[in-house]
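pipeline stage [seq->struct] | target=Alpha/beta hydrolase | organism=Streptomyces spectabilis | residues=345
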Amino acid sequence: MSSTELPDVLAATVAPKPGAVGVVEGERMDSVTLPGMTLSVRTRPAADTGLPPALYVHGLGGSSQNWSALMPLLQDVMDGEALDLPGFGDSPPPDDGDYSVTGHARAVIRFLEARGRGPVHLVGNSLGGAVTTRVAAVRPDLVRTLTLVSPALPELRVQRTAVPTGLLALPGVAALFTRLTKEWTPEMRVRGVMELCYGDPAKVSPDAFAAAVREMERRLARPYFWDAMARSARGIVNAYTLGGQHGLWRQAERVLAPTLLVYGGRDQLVSYRMAHKAAAAFRDSRLLTLTEAGHVAMMEFPDAVAAGIRELVADAGELRDPRAVRKGGGVSDDRRDPGTSGTRS
């Protein structure tokens, strides 16, 4: 579908505006207007026409830029788009102020319906993993396959290192943290985030660190940044306490799409021990464990994650060229790297 054929609720492709999130070569940014919200969308066009669509959904405090390392590795097998969830990246807050997991899932569903690209290969990280689990459970017609990288699913024993993030959900904590850290430079904040989210922050290149600092400066300049963070953190906590058919684990059991679960052995936010529980919950699942990865494996080990997705897509019968599954190595090849291992369940 060309841009001229899109419904009226969709805005045209726009050039990156001053202060916008970074756009790497081969990407473009779209602005999509939907009822009650406007979403910024990062597009990595497929290498060929007619390839199936994919949608990537970032985690708490992230943006579509979190997928820039992974998307080009898969552009020969899928046509990728990555959302900035409402209140993050270049997307303004939603009109109704709803930052719950259900509210974010509603944004994803509205986008897919308006874009007319479903069903898609759906990929989510952290908060985005919880959001995409809910989407796959309630709208199976929109999902071809599901890939979850360190999904934020309820844990009975939360890791101590994850507690400060959870505390953001408490009223007044975000404002207090802002006051206590007002002297922190963007560089200091980025180092803190990387120490929390990466398995080995020392492996981040100087260029990548500088880009992250620029991104942090942009985020801090937005008046709604901390409010979006606090309300989304509260949304995760509320989702953790929700029981019955709306509970995330119950919804994981309802997912019909073939599912790839990616867990990092050095993840300080989502416990590595939850990997096998997740593999048991999702009925058609496989597990990729990356022992040296932290919370953002798609940024630290994009080749390994891409290889896992290729095999998922191939086994689901969604790969146009079967030879493409081995491009860049498959999950079984990851054993050559002592920091990764591939297992299925």
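stage status: PASS
auto-comment: The domain at 3-343 is CATH 3.40.50.1820 (Rossmann fold). Residues 1-20, 328-345 have pLDDT under 50 and may be disordered.
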